[in-house]
Amino acid sequence: MKYSQIIIEKKEFELLRNLISTESYYKDKTYKSSLHKLKKELEDVKILPDNKMPGDVIRINSNVTIETPWNVQRTYQIVVPEQSDIRNNKISVLAPMGLALFGYAQGDEVEWEFPMGIKTIKILEVEQSNTTFKLEAL
User: Which UniProt keywords apply (predicted)?
Assistant: First the structure.
């Protein structure tokens, strides 16, 4: 791990904490497992203000190029749930893949449980979108 711990912007951290509080309402095993793992990871994250966030850390609206265990490279944008659109390569921060990547940095390798089991994803590139995340919009 590039920065030795997950780094999350303060407003995004608050959003994730609020979403985790709804964990008991979900029945999907993979989704619940992802939220549970995220909850544990949030116990040891570094929280920074927006102006101190490293440019290569994945956050809401980041464009992320990954390599899957099957040597397939894809670029996705991590978005808030209501903007999710897999046909346009926009993945919700709450989807298993979004949760797996959030807070990690370019060059990191992430292990996460997906519907097909635990897999390792390589983060090849992270670009920040010019779109600013607004907590009030949620």
Answer: Elongation factor, Protein biosynthesis
